[in-house]
Design brief:
Strand 1, helix 2 and strand 2 form a beta-alpha-beta unit. Among the domains are: 111 residues, Response regulator (Rossmann fold), CATH 3.40.50; 203 residues, 2-Layer Sandwich (Heat Shock Protein 90). 57% of the residues lie in helices and 14% in strands. The protein is of the alpha/beta class. It is built from 15 helices and 12 strands. 25% of the residues are buried. Bound molecules: adenosine-5'-diphosphate and magnesium ion. The site of magnesium ion has 4 residues, from helix 11.
Length: 480
């Protein structure tokens, strides 16, 4: 036990040399180390530089008396735990009570009974040791508890992090599985559409030539036989030959336009659904953007509640880029679909704004600037219409592409929707973060987009936005 190595010193404080001698002798014989002091002050001094295990303290002394000495001992944190036993006259009850009230643990009466002194000293030393051990154990227990709490907290944090990671990868797995199934389905449909569209379109060319030939022969007949049989005349009138001859080419033309559109869609679908291609290849980024836009076309058109969304394609001169085309198209899709969502949700808000604002030119300056393409690129802008001077800003998505620093392809996709708050901006790319109602948003679009851009292409995907000032996503892909 720790106690055995500690001091076993008993300090006796008494101004009476006889008392000191008697007590010292008894205690020494009993195996204690004894220290003595003849007044209160020297007792306090000694106690501080060599603390005893126990103090036997006389009450009546010259200088400060026993009570004052005890009070000072109990006041000092270094000495307050040392048990004090008063030595009093047998009859003085008041002194005994005062001693206890000052923190003494016991008293012995003069003249001393040797065995009683030893017995009391023994008991109090044992008590003192027990309480010391208890204190040490308490401290240890407290430490252990704190340690344990810390470890439990750490484990809990680790577990909840792995749970979160597990959930994330599960959701991403499901999502990419869905995308690949969808990709195969889309590719299959595109293939199936392609064949019939192909023969309709090639047959239309023959149909046009045959019609022209027939028409030529008809005109010759009419020229050489201007007065045919009445039955033929009747029939010619019934079918309204002139109108028929004028309308048929138009019909053929519109059928041609239709098949052309169908084959474009089929091409776009095939282009878009190349998610099964697991190798990098050189692709035309603009073709990917265009096919994604074609697939989203129905969402860009005028609806019951919302105006048509204008798309400004501000394409620069891009070389072919080494990338995973299907995956990159998914990035375009996720960002463009978000922009459309934002513009649809923002339309109500903007109308509210314009109503409150009575000025005839209600476009915020920022939006006007935002909606005007920079002059140097204006020449490349397709579909460009004047978009300023509208009372209600036209919901617009602008796609700009360019090469910077000779080896980075940059694709900027911006919208003049409601923008996002700083706090939403901080969390946008986190998996399962969404501000959309359940069933509408999964919160995965941007986290998947970032993974595709940054992990698969060693690129960067960032977002610039402020509330009321639209949103811009910037995709940077190294050209290699
Ligand atoms: N163009 C944008 N304008 C405003 N907010 C946007 C835009 N794009 C993304 N956000 C915000 O980012 C969130 C996360 O987007 P995303 O990861 O695609 O998940 P989801 O579209 O399913 O909500 C959206 O819920 C929306 O709050
Ligand atoms: Mg989304």
């Amino acid at each position: 036990m720790a106690q055995s190595t500690e001091s076993r010193i008993i300090l006796i404080v008494d101004d009476n040399p006889t008392n000191l001698e008697v007590l010292s002798e008894s205690l020494s014989i009993a195996g204690f180390d004894v220290a003595v002091a003849v007044d209160g002050e020297s007792a306090l001094e000694q106690t501080e530089y060599n603390p005893p295990e126990l103090i036997l303290l006389d009450v009546m002394m010259p200088g400060i008396d026993g009570f004052e000495t005890c009070r000072r001992l109990k006041e000092n944190p270094l000495t307050q735990d040392i048990p004090v036993i008063f030595m009093t006259a047998l009859t003085d009850t008041m002194q005994k009570i005062k001693g206890f009230s000052l923190g003494a643990v016991d008293y012995i009466t003069k003249p001393f009974q040797k065995d009683e002194v030893l017995a009391r000293v023994g008991v109090h030393l044992k008590l003192r040791n027990l309480s010391k051990t208890l204190e040490e154990k308490n401290v240890l227990l407290l430490q252990l508890t704190q340690d344990l709490e810390q470890r439990v907290a750490q484990r809990t944090a680790e577990l909840s992090q792995s749970l979160e990671e597990l959930q994330r990868s599960q959701v991403q797995l499901v999502q990419s599985e869905k995308m690949s199934t969808l990709g195969q389905l889309v590719a299959g449909i595109a293939h199936e559409i392609n064949n019939p569209v192909g023969f309709i379109s090639s047959n239309l060319t023959y149909a046009e030539t045959y019609f022209q030939d027939l028409n030529k022969i008809l005109q010759l007949y009419l020229q050489y036989y201007p007065h045919p049989d009445p039955e033929i005349c009747e029939e010619l009138e019934a079918v309204e030959l002139d109108f028929l001859l004028e309308d048929l080419p138009k019909i053929l033309q519109s059928m041609k336009v239709g098949t052309e559109r169908l084959s474009n869609i089929s091409l776009a679908l095939r282009n878009f659904s190349r998610s099964d291609i697991s190798e990098k290849m050189s692709v035309d980024i603009h073709a990917g953007l265009d096919s994604t836009l074609l697939i989203l076309k129905h969402r860009l058109q005028t609806k019951k509640k919302s105006a048509a969304i204008e798309v400004i394609r501000d394409y620069g001169d891009l070389p072919l880029v080494e990338c995973y085309p299907g995956r990159l198209n998914q990035v375009f899709m996720n960002i463009l679909a978000n922009a459309i969502d934002a513009l649809e949700s923002g339309i109500g808000d903007r109308k509210g704004e314009t109503k409150q604002n009575s000025s005839p030119l209600t476009l915020p300056v920022k939006q006007q600037q935002f909606r005007t393409p920079p002059e140097d690129q204006a020449s490349q802008t397709k579909n460009q219409q004047p978009i300023i001077n509208h009372q209600i800003p036209i919901p617009t998505i602008r796609i700009q592409t360019k090469v910077i620093e000779t080896n980075w392809v940059v694709i900027q996709i911006s919208d003049n929707g409601p923008g996002v708050t700083e706090s939403v901006k901080q969390q946008l790319f986190e998996p399962m973060f969404t501000t959309k109602p359940p069933g509408k948003g999964t919160g995965l679009g941007l986290s998947i987009a970032r993974q595709i851009v940054e992990e698969y292409h060693q690129g960067r995907l960032s977002c610039h936005s402020a509330l009321g000032e639209g949103t811009e996503f910037v995709i940077k892909i190294p050209m290699k």
